[in-house]
UniProtKB/TrEMBL annotation, chain A:
The keyword Transport applies. This is Cytochrome c biogenesis protein. Belongs to the binding-protein-dependent transport system permease family. It comes from Halolactibacillus alkaliphilus. The lineage of its organism: Bacteria, Bacillati, Bacillota, Bacilli, Bacillales. It comes from the Bacteria. It is a multi-pass membrane protein. The chain crosses the membrane at residues 20-44, 73-97, 109-133, 164-184, 219-246, 266-291. The keyword Magnesium does not apply. GO terms for biological process: transmembrane transport. PROSITE patterns: ABC_TM1. Keywords: Cell membrane, Membrane, Transmembrane, Transmembrane helix, Transport. InterPro entries: ABC_transporter_permease, MetI-like, MetI-like_sf. Pfam families: BPD_transp_1 (PF00528).
Automatic annotation (TrEMBL), chain B:
One of its GO terms (biological process) is transmembrane transport. It is a multi-pass membrane protein. The chain crosses the membrane at residues 12-32, 71-95, 107-131, 143-161, 181-205, 241-262. Keywords: ATP-binding, Cell membrane, Membrane, Nucleotide-binding, Transmembrane, Transmembrane helix, Transport. Residues 72-262 form the ABC transmembrane type-1 domain. Belongs to the binding-protein-dependent transport system permease family. It is found in: Cell membrane. This is Sugar ABC transporter ATP-binding protein. GO terms for molecular function: ATP binding. One of its GO terms (cellular component) is plasma membrane. InterPro entries: MetI-like, MetI-like_sf.
């Protein structure tokens, strides 16, 4: 009697299981899974979005990889990723460290101020920074660097000006986010470790090098991962900042993809670009993981 | 000696934090200053640091160029409906993945996790084609319906439900003759409200600030969301910075206010979301 009931119940449970995941899975198949698979298919077709598709083999990949503008976009994406991520994480770490200090008061105020930029939309950030980083020699940033004796920079039109301006936007919007994440990590380190180190006569610098940084490794790896993957998908900042003219100083891979698809109606090459970006991100993720593993192992060997 | 060293250390810490806060807050102040001043002030010497008297005039110019309140309304509709649907669908599926036994559960869950790693741009063009074929271009549902799919949401809900709800509670419910639907609504939901708050905030903010997808499928001015509308202000042929900044300022104010009121909640959500990842 009891066994029969439990089998019946199991069946009922599994029916409910399917029923409960079905709203998600129906939408997910149409708007999540299918587009991903279809993207690979499209990357082998020539198609303008309206007429017949034509199978062209690897021709789309050849076209994209032979386009200097694509390589410029790839170069820009990586350079901006590096320029924005590295300073961002270092400053975020310093800020989190300062904020975690027992000396500091008004912690709530600092936390909220640092985080505020992250709530702001990227479009708003790009518009506001567009008025700070103007080409005019009397623009605010140009006036400011003038105080230190620097020549005015054409932020909107020069090779490095555009990159610095875009990096500044990313830096501003994300430094607080990373500070908060690091702070959470720092607070999870047991105070006893520091006490013990102090008793052993360790200086602040030694405490940072031998306790804080090793304990923070997983958090640091997470932020490096998120920032690099995020900056490879850079789109909104350059689009709003440099406008529809798509100046080559600021074009990124996703902007290139966007232009191929929605200005040139070349859905095949656009899909090929998406597939290439996908593999670049996979390679970057795997590299990140390998480095992370390596660091983890070397630490185990030491201790 | 020890005291002076402490003092120096303290000064460095505060200088660092004050500098950080200044850089974080200044663009907001600048936004306000420019939005209350005439156009030419943007590059004036010396730089403008005081509010002007164009607050109302600049915003009137915004209203002459874009349907600001229409766009605000569209943003509210899109963000609210996606958030509500995400909470419902993700908690239902999350509950099934955490507590119910059915065939193929593991494979389906792994499929979801895998798509979390895939950059959203990969599916961009096919998604656009689907929306075109459905005839949804220039309709809000083109953003709302695909937006309801959140792999992260499922993952998040499953983890939370697994930890927060003891199996005994569900068994007890069954003993009392509750159906799974009643168990979900009367036992599960009340216990996962904190997870709803976290996922809700992350989802709402993400949708509110989303740009690329709405830009592609919402071309017509009447369906523009705030972000798209602000961007079109910025692209006008003759740039009136007072007007542009006024639009940007008033588009930024609502979310900043909500953040300031619920800041503890927001920051906790982001941290939790990141840690779980």
């Amino acid at each position: 009697m009891k066994r029969i009931k439990s089998i019946k119940e199991k069946k009922k449970d599994s029916l409910y299981g399917y029923a409960f995941i079905s709203p998600f899975f129906i939408l997910f198949s149409i708007f999540g899974l299918f587009p991903i698979i279809f993207s690979f298919y499209l990357s082998f077709q020539r198609w303008n979005g309206l007429g017949e598709m034509e199978f062209v083999g690897l021709r789309n990949f050849e076209l994209v990889l032979a386009d200097p503008f694509f390589w410029k976009a790839m170069y820009n994406t990586f350079v901006i990723a590096l320029m924005s991520t590295l300073p961002q994480l270092i400053i975020a770490f310093l800020l989190a460290f300062a904020l975690n200090s027992t000396y500091v008061k008004m912690k709530g105020f600092f936390r909220v101020s640092f985080f505020l930029p992250n709530v702001t939309s990227i479009v708003a950030v790009a518009v506001v920074f567009g008025t700070l980083f103007t080409n005019s020699s009397t623009g605010l940033v140009n006036s400011f660097i003038g105080l230190f004796g620097f020549e005015p920079v054409n932020w909107g039109t020069s090779e490095w000006g555009v990159k610095w301006a875009i990096s500044a936007m990313i830096f501003w919007r994300w430094v607080g986010y990373n500070t908060i994440i690091y702070l959470a990590g720092l607070q999870s380190i047991s105070q006893d470790l520091y006490e013990a180190a102090k008793i052993d006569g360790a200086s602040v610098r030694q405490q940072i090098m031998h306790i804080t940084i090793p304990m923070m490794k997983p958090v640091i790896i997470f932020t490096v991962f998120i920032s690099t993957i995020g900056s490879l998908q850079l789109f909104t900042e350059p689009l709003v900042f440099i406008g529809t003219t798509l100046r080559e100083e600021g074009v990124t891979v996703v902007l290139y993809l966007y232009r191929e698809a929605f200005s040139n109606n070349a859905f095949g090459t656009a899909s090929a670009t998406a597939v290439i970006l996908f593999f670049v991100i996979i390679v970057m993720s795997v590299t990140n993981l390998l480095i992370a593993n390596r660091l983890g192992n070397s630490r185990k060997k030491v201790s | 000696m020890k005291n002076t060293k402490d003092l120096i250390y303290k000064t460095i810490l505060y200088a660092l934090l004050m500098g950080g806060a200044l850089i974080a807050l200044f663009p907001f102040y600048w936004m306000f200053i420019i939005s209350t001043n005439p156009n030419h002030v943007v590059n004036s010497v010396p730089p403008a640091f005081l509010p002007g008297n164009m607050l109302v005039d600049n915003f009137k110019n915004v209203l002459a160029n874009i349907d600001f309140f229409g766009a605000l309304w569209n943003s509210i509709i899109v963000s609210t409906s996606i958030t509500l649907a995400t909470l419902l669908f993700c908690s239902l599926a999350g509950y099934a993945f955490a507590k119910l036994e059915f065939k193929g559960k593991k494979i389906l869950f792994i499929a979801i996790l895998t798509t979390m790693m895939i950059p959203p741009q990969l599916g961009l063009i096919p998604s656009y084609v689907i929306i075109t074929k459905l005839g949804w271009l220039n309709e809000l549902k083109a953003v709302i319906v695909p937006g309801m799919v959140s792999a992260f949401g499922i993952f998040w809900m499953r983890q939370y439900i697994k930890e927060a709800i003891p199996n005994e509670l569900i068994e007890a419910g069954k003993m009392d003759g509750c159906s799974q639907i009643r168990i979900y609504f009367q036992i599960v939901i009340p216990l996962i409200l904190p997870a709803f708050a976290t996922l809700g905030i992350i989802t709402y903010m993400g949708v509110w600030n989303d740009f690329l997808w709405p830009l592609i499928v919402l071309k017509d001015q009447s369906v523009h969301t705030l972000q798209i509308a602000i961007r079109s202000l910025n692209d006008t042929y003759v740039r009136d910075y007072g007007m542009i900044m006024s639009g940007t300022f008033w588009a930024t104010v609502p979310l900043v206010l909500i953040f300031l009121i619920f800041n503890k909640f927001f920051i906790d959500s982001i941290v939790k979301g990141a840690v779980k990842n």
